[in-house]
Amino acid sequence: MVISPHNHSEPIHPKVIDTTDDYEAALVRVEELFNSKPGTLHGNELELLLFMVEAYEKKAFPIDPPHSNEATRFRMEQGGTK
Asked: Is residue 3 classed as helix, strand or coil in its secondary structure?
């Protein structure tokens, strides 16, 4: 989780997301920061949090690639072919 500084001159203090509690706290903070402008202190905090959330999700909730037959079938359905 990233601690939100009260003083704009304070640095952002990142913490690696490695537990479910950290993950849930990070999601709450992402929601709080969601409309922050890029390049601002809060915008930079949001960008860093999103990067860390994505890394945690890839590790905690891996998605296996589809089997080639499933991928082909899906693509054919998307294109309206049989």
From this structure: strand
DSSP 46: H
In a domain, 5, yes or no: no
Length, in residues, of the chain: 82
Note whether residue 2 is domain-resident.
Answer: no
Residues 6+ apart with CB under 8 A from 22: 1, 15, 16, 56
Range of the structural domain that residue 38 is part of: 20-79
Residue 24, in any domain of the structure: yes
Number of domains, the chain: 1
pLDDT in tens, 7-19: 444 556 778 999 9
Residue 12 lies in a domain: no
CA distance linking residue 58 with residue 50, whole number of Å:
12
| pTM as predicted | 0.67
Torsion, Cα of 35, 37, 38, 41 (10° steps) = -100
